[in-house]
Each structure stands twice: as C-alpha cells, then as structure tokens.
Write a structure and sequence with these properties.
The chain is mostly helical. It has 29 helices and 8 strands. A hairpin with a 2-residue loop joins strand 7 and strand 8. Helix 4 packs across helix 5 and helix 22 runs antiparallel to helix 25. The longest helix is centred in the C-terminal third of the chain and has 34 residues. The chain is globular, with a radius of gyration of 30 Å. The two termini are 39 Å apart.
Length: 719
C-alpha cells in the first residue's frame, strides 16, 4: 500500500501491542467477542498454537439447516478441518512451545489506503462476522499476532486481506493457522449464525488462466477436483452456489509463483469475486503486481521478522533443563544486545524457516555452537544455506524412539535433488506425478513394453490361431501378429511421455444409476431381439439364454460410452465402434453422480485410483470382448477355442485399455527406469509421500510441492 495517511498507522518504533486490539498479558490471548484466544506462532515455517492447539470442529445443530447449502457448507467445514488439521500436524504447526508471529500494516506499495479497506464512515462490502466488531484504523496501528489477525479478517469491511513478507517469513503457515482459527470460530457460533460465517478453503493459484475462467468458475472447478463432496451430480453447481452466496472464503496461495502477466490478470479477476479473500504473496512480487493491478479495497499486512528473544525462548523451551552448553551459547549470542550488527546467526534466525531447520538439523546434543564461528558463517545467507544443505540428511537420519527411515539419507537427497532440478528446469514448483513419464527417454520403456506385451499376450493368441488353423501360414503370421500387437501397446504407452491432462473419473462417475440402467436396457433389448429373431432364421439356433450371454458386452459398452468411461473402452476393438461422437456429446452435459464419501483428495489417492480403477476396468473390458465372441466359438467349434479367445481378449484389451493408457502404470514404469538411471527409489510415489510426512514436501490437491521454495532452489543448484 502507499504510505499511510498521517495519524493512521504509527511508525515502526511503536510497540506492536500498543494500541487497538490488545493482548491479555495473563492469558496469552484475546478475550474480545469472536476472537480465538491462546494462539501463538511456531514450527517449521512460522507456526502457531497455544492452549487451544487442537482443532475439533463439531457442527451439532438443534434444528435442521435453513438451506441445503448450509448442510453442504457444514460438511465442507468438517472435511477442510480434517485436511488442514492433518497437514498442520505434518508441518508441526500444532506443537507446544510456540514461536510468536507478529504483523503490521505494510508500508509497501501493494494496496490502497487503509480507509478503503476498513470503509469507516462508508458502505461495507462485507458485514463483520457474527460476534466480531468492525475493523478500524485505530485497531490496526499496533499490529498484533494471530488472534488479532482473525479479528481483522472477520471484521474487515472490504473482505480483502493481503499477507505479504520476504521469503521464508511464514506467510503460508500464518494463512493455514488463520484458516484453522476461522474454522474453530465457525464451530463455536450458534447454529443461527453459522450460515453467516464462511468456510475458509486454501487453494493454490497455479493453473488458473483468468482469460478462460472467472474467479468463481475456477474456484468451483478446483473444489470439484479436490473434494469428493462435490463429485456428485451437480457438485460443481453446488460449489458455485456456495461461493456466490458467500459461504466460502478463499485463502489463495502462490501468487508469487505465477508469471507476471498472469499475476496482474488474477488480481484484476479477483476484484469481482463474491467471496472473502485472503491472498498470500512474497512482498517483492506483490509490489511488482501492484504496478499493473491492485486488489481493490485490500488491506496489506506484513509478517514481521522473528525477534531474537522470541527465537531464543523458542529454542530453549524445547530442550531439557538445564540446556546443553552448545544451545546455551547460541541463545546467549541471540540475546546479546552488544553483539555486532553483522551477527550472522541472529540475522538468519529472524525467519521461522531457519529456526525450524535449526531444530531439524541439530539434535539436543548436537554441535549447534559451530554456527557461532564467524570465519565459516560470515553472513545470514551462509547460515541458512548450511541448514538447507543438511535438512534432507537430518530428516532421514535415524532417531531414538522413532521408526527407522525406509530410505537412506544419500538416496533421499539424490532423489530430491533430481526432482528439484527437474521442476526448476520446467519453471514450476508443482510436482505433477502424471508428468513424470516425460522425465526420461521413452525408448527404453517403449522397447520393454513392446517385448513383454508381445510375449505375454502373443503366446495365447498364437495358440488360438494354431488351434483353429495349424498351417505354415499361421506359423509365420502368428508371431508377426504378436510383434505387431506388442508394437501397438508400446506406442500407446509412448503417448503418455507427453504431458497429459489428469482424468478424475471414479467408480461412481462411471457406474451411475443412469449409465447402469442404460446399459441394462440396451442389453435386454438386443438380447431379446436376437433371441426372437434368430430362431426364425435358423432352425439350429442356440437357446434363448445364449443371446443374453453374448450381448452382455453390448450393455457394458453402452454403460461406459454413455458416461465417463469412453476413454477406457475406446481402445477395445468392436466395443467402441460408433461411440466416439455419442461420447463427445454426452461429455458436454454429463454431471457426476452422488458420492457417499467426503474427503480431500491427495496425490497418492489419485495415483492409487488410477492403478486400481482403470486397470480393473481395462481387464473388465477384455472380458467383455471375450464374451462378445468366445461363446459363439464354443457353440460353433469347441470349448478350447472359446477359452483361448477369451484369454487372448482379456490380455490384449487389458494391455491396451488398462495398462498402456494408465498414467499411474506409466509413472510406476518410469520410476523403475529412473531407479536404473538416477538411483532413485523404485517405489517413487511411496517415497514422495514419505518425504511429505518428513516435512520436506507438502501436498496441494493432487500435486506435491517442496515445503520451502528455498529448499527446492538449493537442491536444484547442488544437482
């Protein structure tokens, strides 16, 4: 924002708690109506909790919700609470001995005047949340901590809050903790007021093109992909309705990770969004964006550096009493008021990232006092780089009382360096696992798939051909056909080396009541028709039930092509004939079916879904093709011919529809190739999830990201 008007916001010399919303010195929190008390900042990136460090969101109502949207919002609050409670635990945001967070109104040119955000004496765009007073300029003068941040969020007239700060200042962690506080507050208000308290949802801005989608359309699409609550029929419409009615507040992270052109377009598009918005960005990128577009009415708050006394107290509180000498020496250096201005350790530990890394890298008896060597660590950057370089090793070093890591520190660091270098080369922070097949040369993988499919699938098909016609021609054409079929499978697998869109169709998306009834209807009509007509044409026609048996695949293919299964059946001969145009038409208006489970969807969930669902459906498609012709061969020739055809159909169709076109299988095969070429783990997806649990990666919807951008940069540089 511009420099505040005289009298609005005092200079930096004032105490952060000198005015406006004041902290209760005895309780450690706030006691104003509508605020969350007992919270403070601590953990690996900037972290908070206190006496109320566990979020238990219960939505017990004595009366039925006034609107179906209220029930959906309550369920979304439960799912989001469970999601971020787990994620905050993995980030260690909810541990005791908190590290305080402090914020002040930013004096950078990133937003308009404060009075434009508070709308004092004017018309407020958003009424304060029930039990929260309007935010005023007087309340903002002294800055504050997390409890005050929730009060500002809940009472801000513009509904537009911008959290900025330097890299590794703890901006995202502050947003996560604000989200948890907002959920806890929503759970405490009366049922009558709950509908007026929006459900906060944290989303990454990556992948949004404002030229294609409005903010509401994009957010509704993201909600549909990331929460199974919106996978049902009309789920996207419900998500849109929640957004348009103000029942969802958007917490948007990653503005600084998109290109400059898109940043300005995003900010402009967010102007008209009907939801409350909390936007998180690095300060530098926010300033650059503001030169092109500003978020109207936004209040910019800047996360303040950690004070040396707070850092020392946080570090000592986690140690036994008395603390080890090395840690005591480090704390004394932080508390030394007469230390030279170039105190590298104090400067480095002014951000939560370095403090978290320090606790990760050095154990209670570790030589942490080596950081006081000014000949080795002349600058804060040298200290931070030293901690970053040891972060992976520390995460995978066995610790007493903890399970032994599945991967060695050397393997983990080698793998993460390779991943970081690849992401940096691609200019992204998002690790989309379905793009991994493009990370290696595809020729070795194509040749391997070609050979395996030609042998495994080709042998039964050759035996079938030889059984039907044991001639020299069959002896020549049979192996050639197996080689040709293997080539077709390998070419299909090679297609996935180019980045593909991620399909999200699930069981209930394909096997809906509508598609099942359509398939059954098609099966009964065709089977009955053949059963009535064929006896009139042939005196030796098979029995009536036979026609129902062989027409089952027709019903199955009808089920798939009228829903979202055409991508699977499209590779099966005969079953997909003439269905492409129908599917294109159906796809436009097809609504997903209702689902029973409601949860957030993570990267490993989506990967497992592709392994299990699409592989099984590919095999089922093969069985359908086997039933298409196999019984006819049994009736006209013999049982062996029909059985061989069924096996051949299952193998070839399963290979084409379930294996070669399966993104999860392609990723697993690429992981084997990476293991041979780069020494990464064979079970790469398992490793990524393990790295997430060790606080090196984080999950954002179906993608992974490095927990800290600086860690990715450092690992990529070392690679």
């Amino acid at each position: 924002m511009t420099v505040p008007d005289s009298g609005e916001i005092p200079g930096d010399g004032e105490s952060p708690h000198s005015g406006g919303i004041r902290e209760n010195a005895h309780s450690g929190g706030m006691h104003r109506s509508g605020e969350v008390s007992g919270n403070a900042f601590h953990g690996p990136t900037a972290f908070q909790v206190g006496a109320h460090n566990t979020l238990n969101v219960h939505h017990h109502t004595t009366t039925a919700p006034a609107s179906p949207l209220d029930a959906t919002a309550d369920e979304l609050a439960r799912v989001v609470g469970a999601q971020w409670q787990e994620e905050a635990g993995l980030r260690r945001l909810l541990e005791p001995a908190p590290l305080p967070v402090r914020w002040r109104v930013s004096e950078r040119s990133v937003a308009g005047r404060v009075v434009g955000a508070t709308a004092e004496g004017g018309r407020a765009r958003f009424a304060p949340l029930p039990g929260v007073g309007p935010t005023t300029r007087a309340q903002l003068r002294g800055g504050g901590g997390l409890p005050e941040l929730h009060a500002v969020y809940g009472g801000l007239a513009s509904g537009r809050l911008l959290l900025v700060g330097p890299p590794a200042a703890g901006k995202t962690a502050a947003a996560v903790l604000l989200l948890l506080d907002a959920l806890a507050y929503r759970a405490r208000v009366t049922p009558a007021d709950r509908a007026r308290v929006p459900v906060p949802v944290l989303l990454s801005l990556d992948g949004w093109d404002p030229a294609e989608d409005s903010a509401t359309d994009w957010a509704a699409g993201r909600l549909t992909r990331e929460y199974t609550l919106f996978h049902g029929r009309g789920g996207r419409d419900r998500a849109r309705a929640l957004l348009e009615s103000g029942r969802i507040a958007l917490f948007l992270d990653g503005l600084d990770e998109v290109t400059g052109r898109l940043r300005g377009a995003m900010v402009s598009a967010l102007e008209g969004a009907p939801a409350r918005i909390v936007l998180v960005s690095r300060a530098r990128e926010a300033v650059l964006t503001a030169k092109k577009a500003r978020l109207g009415g936004a209040l910019a708050l800047e996360i303040q550096p950690v004070r040396p006394a707070d850092a020392a107290a946080y570090l000592l509180n986690r140690l036994p009493s008395p603390p080890p000498p090395a840690w005591r020496a480090l704390a004394d250096r932080l508390l030394d008021e007469h230390a030279p201005a170039e105190n590298a350790v104090a400067a480095a530990l002014a951000n939560p990232l370095a403090i978290a890394l320090l606790r990760d890298v050095y154990r209670d008896d570790g030589p942490v006092d080596e950081l006081l060597d000014r000949s080795r660590f002349r600058t804060a950057a040298a200290v931070e780089n030293h901690l970053l370089d040891h972060a992976v090793t520390a995460a995978y070093t066995p610790r007493p009382g903890h399970p032994r890591p599945r991967y060695s520190p050397e393997t983990a660091e080698r793998t993460l360096r390779h991943i970081a270098a690849r992401l940096t080369r691609d200019g992204t922070r998002d690790l989309r696992w379905w793009h991994i097949p493009g990370w290696t040369r595809r020729r070795p993988r194509v040749i391997a798939v070609w050979i395996v499919s030609a042998v495994v699938c080709g042998v039964p098909s050759f035996l079938l051909a030889w059984h039907i016609a044991p001639t020299p021609v069959t002896a020549v054409l049979g192996p050639l056909g197996a080689v040709g079929g293997g080539w077709a499978v390998s070419r299909r697998a090679a297609e996935l080396s180019v980045p593909q869109p991620l399909s999200s169709a699930g069981w209930r998306d394909i096997f809906t009541w509508g598609t099942v009834l359509s398939g059954i209807g098609q099966w009964l009509v065709v089977g009955t028709g053949l059963g009535l007509v064929m006896p009139m044409l042939n005196d030796h026609s098979p029995p009536f039930w036979f026609w129902y048996l062989i027409t089952l695949p027709i019903g199955y293919s009808e089920l798939l092509v009228t829903g979202r299964g055409y991508e699977i059946v499209a590779r099966a001969p005969f079953l997909s004939l003439g269905a492409g145009g129908r599917y294109d038409k159906v796809r436009e208006g097809y609504a997903r079916p209702p689902v029973v489970d409601t949860r957030s969807v993570g990267p490993r969930d989506v990967w497992r879904h592709h392994i299990r669902l699409r592989l099984l459906l590919g095999l089922l498609t093969g069985w359908a093709l086997g039933l298409y012709v196999g019984p006819i061969l049994v009736w006209t020739q013999n049982l062996l011919s029909g059985a061989l055809f069924a096996v051949t159909a299952v193998l070839w169709t399963g290979a084409l529809a379930g294996l070669a076109g399966n993104l999860a299988v392609a990723t697993a095969l690429t992981a084997v190739q990476l293991h041979a070429e780069e020494g990464t783990p064979v079970r790469l997806m398992h490793f990524l999830e393990d790295a997430r649990r060790r606080n090196l990666l984080r999950a954002t919807g179906p993608v992974y990201q490095f927990r800290h951008a600086r860690l990715q940069e450092r690992l990529a540089a070392r690679e």
